[in-house]
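=== Structure Prediction Worksheet ===
Name of assembly: unnamed complex
Input type: mixed (protein and possibly other molecules)
Chain count: two
Listed entries:
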Amino acid sequence: MEPAPGQTHAPSPDAAHQVGRHVKGYLLVGLGLLGCMGLTVWLSFVNFGPPSINIAVVLVLAAFQAGCAAAIFMHLKSEQWTIYRVLLVTLLFVICMFGLTALAFNDRLHLN
Amino acid sequence: MEIPYTVTARPDTGLYSAKIGIWLFLASEFMLFGGLFSAYVFLRVGALPGYWPHGLLNVPVGTMNTALLISSSVTVVLAWAALKMRQFTQYKVWMGLTILLGAAFLTVKLSYEWPAKFHHFGAFIKPESLAKYEPYLGNNFLLARGLPPRVEITGDLEDEASLKDTAAKSYVFKALDAVNADPANPEMERPAFWPRPVVEKRVVVDKADVEYASMFYPRHSTFFSTYFLITGLHALHILGGLVVFTYFWLPVGANLYKRNPEHLANRVEVVGLYWHFVDLVWIFVFSAFYLL
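=== Predicted Assembly ===
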């Protein structure tokens, strides 16, 4: 199934080399994410005192893992501006949704 | 008619059509799960003291499932890289592994985690009857330590069929969860990584003292309704991804590869982006429900 050298659809040696160079990086990031997951689980059971510290630690580590996966596996660290624009608008909507939740929660407390 | 820009990028966006399409789709998914997570935060922060459980989910199993999904994210990106390097045999191997890892995730979730919940029972005690069940709730101990009260007794029922018996005046536990079997033990204040085994103890709870009781179904509590909704929707996304992966792993993928390998590479990249997003969502689901 491998296309013969010189076939029309064979990748340029440069393109194949570029992707090949990243393969080791993908494996390392995958291992890093697994390690980070282990660290998150361990830290979630450490008694820091107030539970809010555990919550903050776990959420920061989860955001870090998600950020790594998005940047490396989803290639967001070097994407076209069109995609960044789409994501920026989406992020604003999500922030608004969370903001509305916060407002509703505060209203409820106020009424009580 | 030839569909334009399936392989080459559009000059104005610098992207091929499927890629801009999947990112727009992922944007809508981001808002869907964002809305659900904001609802989760709202419900959790607004829960009455003692009504949001912590430690009812199996953390080792959740950790294993997270590892499966992260590994599948690596294998799918390796499958794409293999196609870019025109190594079709390697693509088949990595894509096959991705399908196996995703299927393992789904199997654990649907054949073990969820059914285990459906056979576990919990009874919320009415506020005026909490003192009567003090040996199983330990609220005096918790109060002295400034901790929120326990309002639920959980464990295994002696006869699950008795739940349908409307004439029965009580719920009979044959075993209690460790937290109710030894409620004044300071170790029970915090959940443990390894699930604590249930303790054989026959306990009768009068129905008249119970505010609400059921197996751990979605209707059992706000926690379980949000848990089943979000993990169920996530599982549907996994299933969708597996269907598409399998489609490209079958001869359809080989035929497309023969016609134009770059076209198959683009399609795999697009479904890979979706898969990474599903993995990303799970990282937060795992943190929110299993660890916090």
